[in-house]
Here is the input.
Amino acid sequence: MGHKAVCLECKVSFTQGTDFRNRREVNCPHCHIPMILLPHRFKPPKKSENKKWETVKFLINKGFYYQHIYEYEKDIRQNYVAYPTDLKEAKEFVNKYQNQAIK
Ligand SMILES: [Zn+2]
Here is the structure.
């Protein structure tokens, strides 16, 4: 499984192959800032979907790098929670799953 290298400024993403493992970082070919690495399951919005990109940016800033987030019921781990694509839902998501954020 590869990763996706994402540039939030240019709203682009590239799938990285297995040889990527050996590279510490990759810079965006457009703006040359270091790209953010996200798991393969991250589905980038279309370039024109500004609101969705804003949501992605918000989630990453809060420590949600599209890692698996779990729902808990009576302290028992349940299924993965789907990531929101809407900013309003994202704010609720961040509050609810704060303790699972990457610091
Ligand atoms: Zn860029």
About this structure: The chain has a mean pLDDT of 90. The first helix runs from residue 50 to 61. The chain has two domains: 1-44, 46-103.
